[in-house]
Amino acid sequence: MRAFSERSSIGHAMSSRFVAGMTIDDALAACEHVNREGIAATLDALGESVTSEAQARASADVYHQLIDAISARGLNANVSVKLSQLGMDFDPALAEQIVGEMVEHAAYVNTFVRIDMEGSPYTDATLAITERLHARPGCQGHVGTVLQAYLFRTALDAERLLEQGIRIRLCKGAYKESPQIAFPLKQEVDDNYVKLMKRLATSGVFCGLATHDEAIVDQMLAFVREEHLPPSAFEFQMLYGIRRDLQRKLAKLGFGVRVYIPFGPEWYPYFMRRLAERPANVLFLLKNVLKT
Ligand code: FDA
To answer: CB under 6 Å to ligand 1: residues?
Structure first.
């Protein structure tokens, strides 16, 4: 299914709702578009679970081109990367070396690398690598990672990262996790998200609140008013193609908004996670493809 979908024109038409295109130029065009609306971007060259050093280095090469383009074009953007895309599954030292080179490049041109968080087998290593890179001379403030509100451990992880001044993107979490380590009920995840988001927004460390959940966004807006927080204390983050109305509304209200822009031929796992989150999207996409 994956191989067929990634190569077929129907697959491309379906994925275009959530994926900005297949090439670096497509991603940069999408980035320029959102920048013109006062919205920042983070660019994700899709790919995960590579199985050879050559594939890992090829992924990194795309990121180095993105970092150069962000700098050359003066874009309001940074990059997001997954460690499994850089060889984490077969050679963690290689993945750390490759992401380290990316962070040094990003620091040199004054941009930022966000290390996305994958399933729980990666949590410890992702945090440890982020912390080591952040401690490298010149790299402080140029690397951060993601914490997931569905994991029991997240409040403790957040405190440790905040102590070091490491920027956190807070999301609910997109992988299937066991009830031994994660809240099984959506309401529990949402409650934990709200608790953590308030902690991050008042921490003094610039953090990203990644959610499309309007009830939570509204709670954040109320919290900003109660606490007299400046809009510069945090930013909202949302995915390309999801709740564009809310993205624009928040930007117009003067809040920082960053859109996660994924692109590239290996869009299938990302796309399937988005459909799983909201099965209504399957019907919506099919209707649109049949119309075209
Ligand atoms: P939730 O799923 O609770 O739904 C609330 C409402 O949001 C829905 O009723 C609907 O209106 C809207 N919505 C949510 N998803 C939608 C969709 N697919 N299509 C249409 N509407 C939708 N996860 C992870 O594990 N590691 C990571 O590194 C990241 N990174 C990341 C970056 C950014 C910028 C975002 C926004 C999200 C992530 N995620 C992630 C994904 C995250 O963990 C989570 O799975 C999704 O954001 C869905 O959760 P929400 O809080 O958005 O809404």
So the answer is: 116-117, 146, 148, 171-175, 210-213, 237-239, 242-243, 260, 274, 277-278, 281
191-241 pLDDT, tens digit per residue, is 999 999 999 999 999 999 999 999 999 999 999 999 999 989 999 999 999
pTM of the model: 0.94
For the chain, how big is the Rg over CA atoms in Å? Answer: 18
Nearest CA to ligand 1 atom 51: 211
Q: How far is CA 151 from CA 2, 81, 130, 170, 196, in A?
A: 29, 21, 18, 11, 12
Question: For the chain, first and last CA: distance in Å?
Answer: 22
Which helix (H) or strand (E) element contains residue 225? helix 214-227
If one residue of 171, 187, 245, 284 were mutated to test the ligand 1 pocket, choosing by the most ligand atoms within 8 A of its CB, it would be 171
CA-to-CA distance for 236 and 256, rounded, in angstroms?
Answer: 6
